[in-house]
Write a structure and sequence with these properties.
Elements lengths: L4 H9 L4 H9 L1 H7 L3 E4 L13 E4 L8 E4 L6 H16 L3 H8 L5 H17 L2 H8 L6 H10 L4 H9 L6 E7 L4 E7 L20 H6 L1 E9 L5 E11 L2 E7 L25 E4 L6 E4 L26 E3 L6 E3 L17
Helix pairs in contact: 1-6, 2-3, 4-6, 6-9, 7-8, 8-9
Length: 343
């Protein structure tokens, strides 16, 4: 099943009253409290490693009441995007039909839910009219991100999400951080089948960094996933200090002279071992590129189980201090929390 994040986000928007939408856009903290959610400020390290922003949603019964942990940057656009994004996770859990559609989606459950929450936050913070005025009938370019940011109250991430919805082909709009040589944020086009995870390493010789040095770059560049796979795409990038805003596109829909002919998109590194079979729990066909660290089995994308017999819990108990904490407070595969083992 191909579940479009934009359609799901529109469905979530319809559950909000007009006054709730306005309050969330103007003061997300007050809006969320008015909706009965518990808000807890936390260090960025304590938020979810899989979430595309600096927050983490904890549903009942893992918390006394629905709770949002967030890294506070008071009154900032980034904080607003984080808070509204996490509200999206809460609203999804109130919609049984949408939960079922996410479970049956062709894309992994966590990935499609993240894209839905990104699209939802973008819609709350940036109205359609603002996007329409900036694009003026054109397809998105890297420079449009800054133009939209300067014309609205949305964060850079929200601007990226809204503009990526208008990409005419497979591709991404991304924020690249030259100070760490990593991906700060990326949003895929509606039909793109793969997400690009925050924190993915970007090689120091990547062509996008030319924009950080000269102000702009137009040519070819690779999308480099955390798995090590790479895909060559057309690249339009602009720089602003250490931050580079980039459009990666399967088709070059913009003009320009002196560009080479892009070779067929290809994988330039051997793919990880592909694993497949039948889920012992629900009978669905199971396939994937990453096995569970504990049992070596692939997690089923329908029921969320693997050979361990149960979905990965949201909470874990530290074997050293014996306190129960969110899974983001543990290193991957570790039973010792970050407080007891900060390395």
């Amino acid at each position: 099943m191909n579940l479009r994040a934009t359609a799901a986000a529109t469905r979530l928007m319809a559950t909000l009253r007009v006054e709730q939408r306005l309050q969330l856009a103007q003061d997300p903290l007050a809006g969320l409290r008015a909706m009965g959610l518990r808000l807890v400020a936390a260090d960025a390290a304590e938020t979810s490693e899989t979430c595309s922003c600096d927050g983490f949603y904890i549903p009942e019964p893992y918390a006394p009441s629905p709770t949002i942990l967030y890294a506070p940057t008071p009154r900032s656009r980034r904080e607003s995007f984080t808070l509204v994004h996490e509200l999206g996770h809460h609203l999804i859990r109130l919609d049984d039909g949408l939960l079922s559609a996410i479970a049956d989606a062709d894309e992994g459950r966590d990935r499609i839910e993240e894209r839905i929450c990104d699209a939802f936050a973008g819609r709350v913070l940036i109205p359609d009219d603002s996007v329409r005025v900036i694009l003026n009938g054109e397809h998105p370019r890297a420079a449009h991100v800054t133009q939209l940011f300067n014309s609205c109250n949305g964060s850079l991430e929200a601007c990226v999400v809204r503009l990526a919805e208008h990409l005419p082909c497979d591709g991404y709009i991304a924020l690249l951080d030259r100070s760490t040589y990593t991906l700060r944020f990326a949003s895929a086009s509606p039909e793109c089948g793969y997400s690009w995870g925050r924190g993915s390493k970007i090689p120091m010789n990547h062509s996008a960094w030319s924009a950080a040095r000269s102000g702009s770059f137009n040519g070819e560049g690779e999308v480099v996933w955390a798995s090590g796979q790479r895909k060559n795409m057309w690249l339009d990038a602009v720089g602003n200090g250490p931050l580079v805003t980039a459009v990666f596109s399967a088709n070059r829909y913009w003009g320009g002279a002196g560009l080479s002919i892009l070779s067929d998109a290809s994988i330039t590194k051997a793919m990880p071992t592909f694993m497949g079979g039948t889920c012992a729990h629900c009978g669905a066909n199971v396939f994937g590129l990453r096995a569970c660290d504990k049992c070596g089995d692939v997690k089923c994308r329908r029921c969320g189980r693997c050979g361990c017999g149960a979905p990965t819990p949201l909470m874990k108990t530290c074997s050293t201090c014996h306190m129960t904490k969110g899974k983001s407070q543990f290193h991957a595969g570790s039973l010792i929390c970050r407080d007891c083992d900060p390395a």
